[in-house]
Description:
elongated, mainly alpha, 203 residues
Amino acid sequence: MTDRRARRRTETQEEILRISLEVMAADGVAALSMTTVARRLGIQPPSLYKYFPSRAAVYDALFERGQKGYLDAVRQAAEGMEPGLAAMGASLEAGARWIMANQILAQLLFWRPVPGFTPSEQAYAPALAIRGHFATLIEGAVARGEVAPEAAGEEGLALAASLIAGVVSQQLANQPGASYDDGVFMRLVPRLPGVFAGAYPPR
């Protein structure tokens, strides 16, 4: 009986998150309404708080889920590859593809559209793992002589993040309905490792 209740609780939480994404897609990420979610789920609003204690808790669960999804995408793309610019390029493409397929979650993860929302330490942990993943790839590029040692510093990591964020932001702002393969700005993603290497040419 305990297992059955736990399974039902998990299923209801999953349904709440699914509906929340639908509401965010229709009304805007910051406009998530617990009342609307409860109505669509067919329960009274107070009952919703048995599963998530607050609207912020729903955002937090979605943030963690999104970061884990993005982390899985970039890790899988580089699996079996030696750390370096090629693996970095594969990860950047995989991450961009994930964003184009999960645009509502991506807004929550990378553009912080909800005033006052700060992810919990647990929800933010995958984001730190993403940073560590790219740091490893850049360190590999340094070891392979593809970029200068400075590329592996804080500035280099910031530049790498800014390059992909800039391209994706332009894509979502100007052509949000496109797929990765059809996106005008997505065509720039394969060039990003070269742009990065140009900023830190090997000596």
